[in-house]
UniProtKB/TrEMBL annotation:
Organism, as annotated: Planococcus koreensis
Name this polypeptide is given: DUF2834 domain-containing protein
Transmembrane segments: 41-62, 74-93, 113-131, 143-168, 180-198
Protein origin, superkingdom: Bacteria
Taxonomic lineage from the root: Bacteria, Bacillati, Bacillota, Bacilli, Bacillales
Keywords attached to this entry: Membrane, Transmembrane, Transmembrane helix
Length: 208
């Protein structure tokens, strides 16, 4: 029930504890397109919340054998992040385990060098945002002034932990799985270096 407890805590934080007033300066700047006034670290974290779901989409659909289909949670995570994934891990990712639901053509695509390489390129592109220069003090100020930044920061750490857990759960025999601790990039590198595990045969399906 740990995932359910984290989900409740995340909701409680977002609703009752997250700092920030009625007006959210960062959200206003994003919607108005005034990105130049936002600290690059805030932007990088914000953008990474679109990359984490792409990683989870890959991990979950390549291993979609659980009680609940993975795709609704994976798709919803592009909008609400860990708020969508935690209920799946709490209740849906349980036995009885089934035959892989994901179509073979999608498995081939998600495990392809093209897709995994694209995720690496997107991660690197987002990292380049930080070359503009960033300030931890500015991020701290944004954290306490903007509920968006506050919630997305906590969400980021939850997604990071979930991504590490997912790699270790689904690929216990993977080489160099400690790379999963590198946020966003790590799970992709584990998949890239263990592509033989991404094309499940009948024996692996029964073993999962």
């Amino acid at each position: 029930m740990i995932f359910f407890a984290i989900w409740l805590a995340l909701i409680g934080y977002a609703v009752f504890l997250a700092p920030g007033g009625d007006s959210d300066p960062i959200l206003t700047q994003i919607f108005s397109g005034q990105l130049g006034g936002i600290d690059p670290l805030v932007l990088a974290v914000f953008n990474s919340l679109g990359l984490f779901p792409a990683v989870f989409l890959t991990l979950l659909l390549l291993n979609d054998r659980q009680r609940w289909p993975a795709w609704p949670a994976a798709i919803a995570s592009f909008v609400i992040g860990a708020f969508a994934l935690l209920p799946y891990f709490a209740f849906g990712a349980k036995p009885p385990q089934k035959k892989l639901r994901t179509p073979k053509w999608l498995v081939r695509f998600l495990s392809s060098r093209i897709w995994l390489g694209a995720l690496i390129v997107l991660w690197a592109s987002n990292l380049l945002t930080l070359l503009q220069g960033f300030s931890l003090a500015a991020y701290r100020e944004a954290f306490f002034a903007s509920s968006l930044v506050s919630v997305m920061s906590v969400d980021w750490f939850v997604l990071w932990g979930l991504s590490v857990y997912t790699v270790y759960r689904f690929y216990p025999d993977a080489h160099n799985k400690a790379l999963a601790w590198i946020p966003i990039l790590g799970p992709v590198l584990v998949l890239f270096g263990n592509r033989q595990l991404l094309q499940p045969d009948e024996n692996r399906e029964n073993a999962q």
